[in-house]
Amino acid sequence: MFTLKILIVEDDSVSALLLQRALEKNAHQIIGIADTGEKALEILEENRADIVMMDINLAGELDGIKTTEIINEKFDIPVVYLSASSDAETLNKVVGTNPSAYVIKPFNIRELNMVIELAIFKDRKEKELQKLNNELEEKVKQRTAELYEANKELTKALEKEREINELKSRIVLNVSHGFKTPLTSILSSAQLLQIYAEKDHPFKQKIAKHAFKIENSVRALNNLLTSVLFFGKADENKLEFKPKKIFTGAFVKELIDTVNAGIENEVTIHAEIGDMPKTITSDPELVYQVLENLLSNAVKYSKDGKQVQFKMNIEEGKLKAEVIDKGIGIPKSEQGKLFDRFFRAKNVGIVEGSGLGLSIVKKCLEVLNGEIEFQSEQDKGTKFQVTIPVK
């Protein structure tokens, strides 16, 4: 049993004396005996106590409960109540002051010692817990402050990145638009050269050959700029769904004529257009981008003289299209990257391309709320299946 400094607050002098003797017998030090709450507070102002033995019913203005409330607030010392009463009303009163223990008179010394030990143990554990809580709160405050500062820095960095991306997008768009006009002029000149080459001229064949090269090169560059402009809009969240009435016959003819105009490897397109309505409603530009990119890729990566199959029909309010080629196919290990920007499979060889076509297809289908599936095997070909909701 450890030695404690104890204050006894008891207005019955006989009970106080008996309690003092019992406590001193167990080597505790009594720093004072007070018969009123006021006197108890005065003693505590002058002397440090480890524990207070408090009678509930005291004479004077402060009873044991009010005195304990002041001790809790001012000195933070554990209090053990002493009372001859154990009725519900008294117990309800003492519970509100969070006493360390409660002893019913008369008490025996063994019981008293147990109560004091438990009271001291409870007080120490509560203070340890409070200390840990305070340390935890301090760490939380510190961490919160650190996170706040880190968040501020991150916000600044994100804002700077957003500004840089906006600047980059503006530069790309401005440069791309700047290229458009001279490219159109070069294309027109190349087409004029071809017209002149049809007349008798000593260099007729050479003029036609170079004019054809110029025209194809300009078309390729123009397609690349169109792709860059497309992603400029997409990155600025300006890619919107703009539904219009589409005349299916004219739409399909323009699509196939455009792809045929760019064929350089004698590949042919075999179109199987099912029972299509005269008109459908969707975004014609986005639908065109999807089908034109798929067909152009199929033609470009097919072997010379091969055929690309193009099937299209309407089923249950959905435009369904298939593009099937017998070309180089896509290696299985690379198929997961197929729709990434600038991705080109390792087996494309010397075939030129930007790696943007299929990523454009994917982006357009997201806006159209459409779906795409594919099956491909290296050196055997690829099949793309597209589904787009239409009205």
From TrEMBL:
The keyword Coiled coil applies. The keyword Kinase applies. The modification 4-aspartylphosphate is found at D55. Its EC number is 2.7.13.3. Residues 174-391 form the Histidine kinase domain. Residues 118-170 form a coiled coil. Gene3D superfamilies: 1.10.287.130, 3.40.50.2300, Histidine kinase-like ATPase, C-terminal domain. Keywords: Coiled coil, Kinase, Phosphoprotein, Transferase, Two-component regulatory system. Signal peptide: none annotated. Residues 5-120 form the Response regulatory domain. It catalyses: ATP + protein L-histidine = ADP + protein N-phospho-L-histidine. One of its GO terms (molecular function) is phosphorelay sensor kinase activity. This is histidine kinase. It comes from Algoriphagus boseongensis.
